[in-house]
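During the practical work, I selected for study one protein's amino acid sequence and its C-alpha cells, as given directly below:
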Amino acid sequence: FTPKQLILYDISENYMYDLFFELKEKYGELVANTLVLEVGSVRDEESLWRVMGKYRPDIVIHAAAHKHVPLMETSSEQAILNNVFGTYKTAKIATECNVKRFVLISTDKAVNPTNVMGASKRLAEIIISSIPPRNTEFMAVRFGNVLGSHGSVVPIFERQIKAGGPVALTDENIIRY
C-alpha cells in the first residue's frame, strides 16, 4: 500500500527492532524512510495519546495481545489488563484521534472460548463492536496459528519432530486449526 509513514508501537523494543530490520531488508528504501519506532504500552493511555496524537494515523492495526493459552491461565489478570483494557484504551483514543479504520487482530480461540485468553480476545471483539460509530470504522479479523509468527505452535511442533518426538499437546482433546 506504500504508506506515507508506518509507526511501529510496541512495549517490546527487541521485537520491534527486529521487525524494523526485517522490513528494511525485505522492502528496502520503500519503507526505510517511512518507519518510525515508538516504545509504549496499550495499557498506558498517556503513551497512546502521545503517539496517536502526534502522528494522527489513518489506520490502526491493533495486534498487542497476550496469546499463550497456558500462561494466560496462570496469569489471567494480565490477559484481562492487556487484551481487554488495552484494547478498550487503544480503541477509545483511536476514536478521539479520528482514526479512519481500526483493525483488531483476534484469534480463532475467541469462537466459543474455553480458556481465559480466548475469552479475553472475545471481550476485545465485543468492545470494538460496541463503540458508537463516529469517524472510526472498527473491524476484527481472526487468525489461527500463523506460520512463522512469534508464539505460534508450529515452530514448537517442528522442534519436537526434529528432536524425534513426541509432539506434545497442552490437552489431548485440543483442536488445532
Notes: Helices lie at 13-27, 29-32, 45-55, 69-74, 76-96, 116-130, 153-162. The longest strand covers residues 101-107. Strands lie at 6-10, 35-39, 59-62, 101-107, 137-143.
